[in-house]
């Protein structure tokens, strides 16, 4: 029972006690007054009868006495009239039952006992005693009057009590409304949400409670913010180049290896290599500060170019070398973009040195195809940059391949998606504490190539993006998953949605409508890449709330590598995160990675969010994850992806 209801019950109990006492006092007072009235009424009647009947009583004329008494008795106000002579012998007695009106309830008659007094009057005639007259008034009159007064009192009490309770409840709710806010704050804190009350009550006790609660919320939020800042400092120190703010050599190569050698989901693209031709000479000519400004400008130009790719790999691999894995594949567009980068750097060099640029930087690009390993791709890009340095122009693009073959492959992919000719594979996420416990299974889309062999996502995903078919592909995958869930699949199924689908409001509405019809919508999990989350925060937050209402779990994939940090977890509050595989690949041998991942897991657990690790391949990695108290693991250690049965 709420405190308002308890207070209302207490007030009602007090009111009932007050009215009970009031009714008792009023009844007792009314009863005494009515008895006085009955006594006076009986005395007056006895006196009047004595004056009238005196001569008849002396003559013992019973007929006249009977006639007179009957005339008075028939008025209904008397219970008994007795007329006796001087020798105390009855001359006439008239009695009736003590009848009470049917409107007076029996319980009231039993509760209130009224015995009317019998009044007497001695009668004399010619100075001699003629006898006595005894008159007892009827009790029913007293009961009727007393019940009428009591009933009216009770009716008015009920009416006034209801009105009073209504207004008191409004007043109580207004006075105690800050406690409702405190309750909401406590519930929000249990869900790792921080809400402060803006309205401070005037009541001293409630004011202190609200101020104390607001202070606690601020302190908890400050602790989380400080934790996030500390982890971000760790990330910068371990994985970020101090001068440019880009990923450092180790982080860049690890991410490139992760995307190309393991995930293989980038699709066709180009690896761009930017080289500052003579960094030592640049330091000598411009000085350390200006040379650093030129390096920052080079990093900034590549960062601008990286925005044309949804999830690029960008970083500084040596003091004078930068790489960018871009989704650009059109040779003409790629040539224009690289010419723009070099032109801007030449202009900046001219501003710093006040003399014409002499090829301060060169840039090369090599196409990325699925058969290349990361080391081979890096070597090809470095050769392209070297060739640019030896050319007359500081830009060089390697040949990308046959346009006819690309067009044929584009048509093949488009046809497969349009016809829904895809099949799904699944890989489980297992509990680290209990390897037999499957938390969910993540699905991967596959299509057959022209040779009727399964194609990995990296072989067709870039084509799907170029053809703007990502939403269509996601819809086909979800339709297949919905069919499986209607058949009561063993474990929850996770689908990773693309950024294009999340930007499509009609797609999101379609997903919610269909998921609402599932017999067990809680068997569906939706995952979104961390970069997509940060790029569409408002839309994703609303979408996540719709999923929560249906009981669908929501996770953030590739967590922990975005330089924007992870303070968004407080707002979004997903059900789980998947630590990016680039942070897990060397977890068993890198103290830095273990420390950073431990910090991420601690931050997630402080918000009651589960933490999973992806791309786990070795038992030593799994042992390290157990020590870090991570909740689940995914990777080839649990087997390669298999057909979704």
UniProtKB/TrEMBL annotation:
Ranges in coiled-coil conformation: none
Keywords: Membrane, Transmembrane, Transmembrane helix
CC annotations in GO: membrane
Alphabetical list of PROSITE patterns matching this protein: EAL, GGDEF, HAMP
Pfam families: EAL, GGDEF, LapD_MoxY_N
Keyword hit for Secreted: no
GO biological process: signal transduction
Positions of transmembrane segments: 6-26, 154-176
Domain annotation GGDEF: ranges: 267-405
SMART domains per the UniProt record, alphabetical: EAL, GGDEF
Domain annotation EAL: ranges: 406-645
Stored Gene3D superfamilies: 3.30.110.200, 3.30.70.270, EAL domain, LapD/MoxY periplasmic domain
Domain HAMP span(s) in chain numbering: 173-225
Record keyword Lyase present: no
GO molecular function, one term: cyclic-guanylate-specific phosphodiesterase activity
InterPro entries assigned: Cyclic-di-GMP_PDE-like (IPR050706), EAL_dom (IPR001633), EAL_sf (IPR035919), GGDEF_dom (IPR000160), HAMP_dom (IPR003660), LapD_MoxY_N (IPR032244), LapD_MoxY_peri_C (IPR042461), Nucleotide_cyclase (IPR029787)
Cross-referenced SUPFAM superfamilies: EAL domain-like, Nucleotide cyclase
Name of the protein in its database record: EAL domain-containing protein
Source species of the chain: Amphritea balenae
